[in-house]
C-alpha cells in the first residue's frame, strides 16, 4: 500500500472515506435550494462546525423540519448503536437504533436519493474496519446496497448484495452461524431479486420472489409482516410482467392482511393498493366497475402518501402518476360505453322504424 492509503486505514477504509466525502458533497449540492436559510436540527448550525458541509433533507419531514448535516446523522447513529452494543440491548432496541442509519429520527421515514446514498457510505465507513463475521459490518453492507438501489444504481447494489450473500454462505459453511435459524439468506435473495428486476432480468426476479414468498409463508404464516413484505415483492413482479389475473387474485387477500398487521398508512400497504390498482387499469380484461374502483383506490392512496411522505416524495409522485393513468383508462371506458349505448339506441330506433313500416304495409 502507498503511504496515503496506509495512513487512511487500508484500501477498504480509504476508499470508503473518499466515497463518503464525495457522496456528501453531491447530496449537499442537490439539497442546496431546499435548505437555504435553514439550520441543522441536531447541532442547530447552518454549516457543520468541523467539516463545513451544508445541510440536506431527503426524508418525509414537512415545512421547517428535517434539515440536517450528514455528519451529524452519522455521529448520532454511531453513538446510539455503540450504546446499544455496550448495554447488550435486546433485538427490538438494536433494530430501532440501527434504523437511524437509513431513516429520519423525526418523521421515521426512510431517506431516499442522494441523501440515502451519503448515509449508506457513512454507515459502511463506520464499520468497514471490523472483522468479516461482525454483525454491524455485515448489516452496513446492506445499508449501502439499499442506498444505491434507492438512488437508482441497481447494478452497484446487486454487486454488494451478492458479495454479502457470499459472505453469509461462507459463515454458514464454517458453522459460524446456524442457517436454519437465520433469515438473512432469504432477505438477501429478495434484495437480489429486486435488483435483477430493475436491471431487466425479469424472469430471474419472478422465480426468486416466488421462492422467497413461499419460504416466508411456510415459516411465519400469512399474517406476519415479513410474509407481507415478500408478498409485495412477488406482486410487483406479477404486475410488471403482465400476470394481471393472478396479481388481482393474489393481492386481494394481501391488502387486507397488510391493513390488519401494518395499518393503512404503512408504506407497504400503500404499495400493495397501488399494485392492485395498476393490475386493474392496465389489464384489458378489467370491467368498468373494476376500473372505477382502481381510480378511487389511487385517489385515496395519493392523499395518504402525501400526508405520510410529503408531496415531493417518490412514493407520492408514483401514486400520482398511476392515478393519472387510471383516470385515462376510466375516461376511455366511459367513452366506449357511451359509444355502445349510442349505437344500440340507433339500432333500436332503426328496428322500430322498420317495424312501423312493416306494420303499415298492405
Which terms summarize this structure?
single chain, 362 residues, mainly alpha, 14 helices, 72% helix
Verbal overview:
With 362 residues, the protein is mainly alpha-helical. Among the domains are: 9-85 and 99-129, no CATH class; 251-333. It has helices spanning 3-7, 11-35, 70-86, 91-98, 113-127, 135-150, 154-173, 184-198, 202-220, 225-240, 244-261, 267-282, 288-309, 314-360. The chain is globular and about 90 Å long. The relative contact order is 0.06.
Summarize the structure.
With 362 residues, the protein is mainly α. It has helices at 3-7, 11-35, 70-86, 91-98, 113-127, 135-150, 154-173, 184-198, 202-220, 225-240, 244-261, 267-282, 288-309, 314-360.
- Would you tell me the overall average pLDDT? 88
Give the SSE string: HHHHHHHHHHHHHH
Structural class: mainly alpha
Query: In DSSP terms, counting alpha (H) and pi (I) runs of 4 or more, how many helices?
Result: 14
Principal-axes geometry comes out as globular
**Proportion of residues in helical segments:** over 70%
> Sheet with the most strands?
none
CA-to-CA gap between the ends?
111 Å
Q: What is Rg?
A: 26 Å
Our estimate of the beta-strand percent is under 5%
Low-confidence stretches: 357-362
Amino acid at each position: 500500500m502507498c503511504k496515503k492509503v496506509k495512513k487512511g486505514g487500508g484500501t477498504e477504509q480509504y476508499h470508503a472515506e473518499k466515497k463518503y466525502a464525495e457522496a456528501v458533497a453531491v447530496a449537499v449540492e442537490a439539497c442546496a435550494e431546499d435548505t437555504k436559510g435553514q439550520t441543522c436540527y441536531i447541532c442547530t448550525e447552518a454549516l457543520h462546525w468541523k467539516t463545513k458541509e451544508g445541510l440536506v433533507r431527503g426524508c418525509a419531514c414537512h415545512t421547517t423540519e428535517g434539515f440536517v448535516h450528514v455528519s451529524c446523522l452519522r455521529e448520532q447513529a454511531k453513538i446510539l448503536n455503540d450504546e446499544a452494543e455496550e448495554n447488550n440491548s435486546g433485538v427490538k432496541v438494536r433494530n430501532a437504533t440501527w434504523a437511524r442509519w437509513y431513516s429520519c429520527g423525526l418523521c421515521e421515514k426512510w431517506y431516499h436519493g442522494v441523501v440515502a446514498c451519503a448515509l449508506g457510505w457513512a454507515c459502511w465507513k463506520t464499520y468497514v474496519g471490523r472483522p468479516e463475521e461482525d454483525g454491524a459490518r455485515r448489516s452496513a453492507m446492506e445499508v449501502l446496497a439499499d442506498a444505491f438501489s434507492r438512488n437508482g444504481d441497481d447494478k452497484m447494489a446487486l454487486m454488494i448484495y451478492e458479495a454479502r450473500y457470499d459472505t453469509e454462505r461462507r459463515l454458514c459453511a464454517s458453522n459460524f452461524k446456524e442457517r436454519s435459524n437465520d433469515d438473512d439468506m432469504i432477505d438477501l435473495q429478495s434484495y437480489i431479486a429486486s435488483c435483477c428486476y430493475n436491471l431487466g432480468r425479469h424472469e430471474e426476479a419472478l422465480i426468486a420472489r416466488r421462492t422467497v414468498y413461499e419460504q416466508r409463508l411456510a415459516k411465519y404464516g400469512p399474517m406476519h409482516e415479513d410474509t407481507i413484505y415478500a408478498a409485495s415483492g412477488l406482486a410487483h413482479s406479477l404486475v410488471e410482467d403482465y400476470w394481471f389475473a393472478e396479481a388481482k387474485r393474489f393481492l386481494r387477500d394481501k391488502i387486507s392482511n397488510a391493513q390488519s398487521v401494518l395499518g393503512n398508512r404503512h408504506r407497504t400497504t400503500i404499495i400493495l393498493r397501488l399494485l392492485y390498482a395498476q393490475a386493474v387499469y392496465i389489464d384489458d380484461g378489467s370491467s368498468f366497475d373494476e376500473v372505477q374502483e382502481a381510480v378511487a383506490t389511487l385517489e385515496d392512496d395519493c392523499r395518504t402518501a402525501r400526508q405520510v411522505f410529503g408531496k415531493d416524495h417518490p412514493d407520492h409522485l408514483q401514486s400520482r402518476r398511476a392515478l393519472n393513468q387510471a383516470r385515462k383508462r376510466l375516461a376511455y371506458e366511459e367513452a366506449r360505453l357511451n359509444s355502445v349505448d349510442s349505437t344500440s339506441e340507433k339500432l333500436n330506433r332503426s328496428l322500430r322504424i322498420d317495424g312501423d313500416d312493416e306494420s303499415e304495409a298492405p
